[in-house]
């Protein structure tokens, strides 16, 4: 049994969704976390609507998140944040996200705007006791224009600093949890993320030839802190790279992770499933 811990089901054509869910179930994917960001805060609800509408014994269980992506940070108005908080109270909305920092695209808001939206959503997550799903993309590989806009700012350093100040301990003095979605950082960033209580989720780019550092992290990460995802419809693993991704393909990422760690795919499936349920214990009830 596999779990796709991050899929944008709301970005898939409604007519294609039944087939995608059926293929996922046939590939032994029994749970999918649908990411509720849409094209902005006005569409945060769509993932939750999908989760509520796909309750069938012959399909994966679908849960949802809700959040304001860093590229939409300028839209994190008080009204949008209130809407996010209301959505997140639903039992099937199990996380806040994806949220974070993105200094890669030229059109993205400046760091101060992204950081303010991020902190506001951390506050909502803390108040509701919900884990967070982190998106982090630095400007290191961005276009020259984007590099000029964001200057020396480093998304990873800013992100980890904000988490240390605003997320390191909850009101009870415990380290809260969350997921570094589609982890693409280095070993140091992985270590620091783990020390802050985060799980590392690996996507289809784990299979790409250039992803040497990601594979090093995937090998060294603690067994109790790893997950697999698709980020569908993006980042399809080899041999489907360049095609629309879908939840059934999480089996290919799981197989690659199993090979890297020298264990069977059944072990990786059982491990990542247990890790997901540990992070989101209410999902065991469905």
Protein described:
The structure is a single chain. This protein is an alpha/beta fold and 286 residues long. It has a single domain, classed as Metal-dependent hydrolases (TIM Barrel). Helix content is 39%, strand content 16%. It is built from 10 helices and 8 strands. Strand 1, helix 1 (17-26) and strand 2 (29-34) form a beta-alpha-beta unit. The longest helix is centred in the middle third of the chain and has 18 residues, at 111-128. The radius of gyration is 18 Å and the shape is globular.
Order of SSEs:
EHEHEHEHEHHEHEHEHH
- Taken from the alpha-carbon principal axes, the silhouette is globular
Measured between the Cα atoms of the first and last residue, the distance is 15 Å
- By CATH reckoning, the class would read Alpha Beta
Number of domains: 1
Count of runs of 4 or more consecutive helical residues? 10
Rg calc:
18 Å
Portion in helices: 25-40%
Estimate the mean pLDDT confidence. 94
Secondary structural class:
alpha/beta
Largest sheet: 8 strands, parallel
Q: What proportion strand?
A: 15-25%
CATH architectural category: Alpha-Beta Barrel
Which stretches are poorly predicted, pLDDT < 50 over at least 5 residues?
A: none
Can you list the strand order of the major beta sheet?
A: 1-2-3-4-5-6-7-8
């Amino acid at each position: 049994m596999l779990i796709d811990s991050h899929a944008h089901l709301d970005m898939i054509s409604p007519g294609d969704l039944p087939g995608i869910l059926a293929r996922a179930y046939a590939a032994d994917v029994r749970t999918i976390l649908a990411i509720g960001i849409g094209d902005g805060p006005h569409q945060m609800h769509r993932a939750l609507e999908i989760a509520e509408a796909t309750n069938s014994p012959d399909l994966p269980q679908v849960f949802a998140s809700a959040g304001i992506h860093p590229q939409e940070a300028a839209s994190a108005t008080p009204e949008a944040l209130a809407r996010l908080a209301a959505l997140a109270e639903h039992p099937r909305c199990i996380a806040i996200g994806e949220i974070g920092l993105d200094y890669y695209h030229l059109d993205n808001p400046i760091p101060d705007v992204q950081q303010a939206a991020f902190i506001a959503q951390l506050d909502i997550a803390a108040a509701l006791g919900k884990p967070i799903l982190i998106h982090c993309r630095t400007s290191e590989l961005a276009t020259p224009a984007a590099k000029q806009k964001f200057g020396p700012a480093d998304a990873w350093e800013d992100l980890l600093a904000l988490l240390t100040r605003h997320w390191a301990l909850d009101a009870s003095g415990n380290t809260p949890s969350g997921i570094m979605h589609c982890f693409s950082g280095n070993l140091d960033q992985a270590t620091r993320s783990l020390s802050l209580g985060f799980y590392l989720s690996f996507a289809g780019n784990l299979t790409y030839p250039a992803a040497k550092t990601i594979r090093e992290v995937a090998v060294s990460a603690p067994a109790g802190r790893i997950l697999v995802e698709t980020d569908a419809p993006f980042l399809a693993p080899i041999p489907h790279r360049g095609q629309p991704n879908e939840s059934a393909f999480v089996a290919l990422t799981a197989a690659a992770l199993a090979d890297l760690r020298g264990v069977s795919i059944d072990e990786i499936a059982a491990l990542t499933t247990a890790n997901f349920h540990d992070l989101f214990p209410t999902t065991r009830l469905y």
